Amino acid sequence: MTGSTAFSILDLAPIAQGQGIAQTLEHSRQMAVQAEKLGYNRVWLAEHHGMRGVGSSATSVVLGHIGAATNKIRIGSGGIMLPNHSPLVIAEQFGTLAALFPDRVDLGLGRAPGTDMATARALRRNMQASVEDYPGDIRALQSYLGSPNGDQTIIAVPGSDSHVPLWLLGSSLYSAQLAAQFGLPYSFASHFAPDALFDAFNIYRSQFKPSAQLNQPYTMAGVMAVIADTDEEARYLYTSLQQQFANLRRGANKPFARPVDDINAVCSPAELSMIAHTLQYAIVGSPETAHAQLARFIDNTQADEVIFSFPIHDQKARLHCMQLLANSQNMRKSL
Predict the structure, then answer these.
(1) 238-279 confidence digits (pLDDT tens)
(2) Which of 131, 140, 268, 290 has the most Cβ atoms closer than 10 angstroms to its Cβ?
(3) Rounded to an integer, what distance in angstroms lies between the CA atom of residue 155 and that of residue 147?
(4) Nearest residue to 280 via CA among 193, 169, 186, 171
(5) How far apart (Å, rounded) are the C-alpha atoms in residues 223 and 240?
(6) To 10 degrees, the CA torsion angle through 92, 177, 10, 63?
């Protein structure tokens, strides 16, 4: 296993069955505080809209919440769905975060809507143009966050001269090519879209062009992690995530489900087969089992950083999972 691999957290802000938004955001705060104590590299939150199981739609606002609760851990978006927004508005939001939390803020960008098409239409005035303009919007964002020049008529205040580092996120070869072309760090969504992982990393690394932000390729890979004291307990906790993906396939918009004793009683064989493929890189088991699974993943991908999501219904079990991962030999080597 590569000892220098950094470990980070993608907090999906799950609105658990039987809980409310305020409790979800408090759980995000608790996770960030513990992540900092345990030595994780960064905590990111993702932009999703209209999902009854995700509480981080106002991503920059939630980042202010966790930034205020911590002192040094990096915070950021994984990601902001840029076609949903004016680049100037995002520059102002993240410029504000950078002023509040200096040298701690990352701006990860995605191209997907982060929601269903009806909600996407409610978010955007011109859906097709905004997706097609993605590369140009990235350039505009770089301009707003960079040092202003004499010919620049539009200035982001806050934002200008903040140099907030950009990341490109994706699950396709397009995003890999774009990240390489722009010379930006690249995070692949292997935690829910595994199929193009290796091709995307190969394209990104082979086509990478150094930039003012980054002089060599830097890769991050997403992993779902459900670690408990025993394999049996971890598999039980994992049934919450299996139910979530079954609900997505069914078009059922529900909160993050409680675990169940028998997943076969609530998911069909076809659903479980689909879920097993989609979550093929998930780390599920005791610390010993998880360590072996993670070692294979890092050895195979050679990722510079792994960003973990902890899709566990119970907050105490989620925090314990974070602790168990941090206790592993690989985590100690990466600090």
Answers:
(1) 999 999 999 999 999 999 999 999 999 999 999 999 999 999
(2) 290
(3) 10
(4) 193
(5) 16
(6) 0
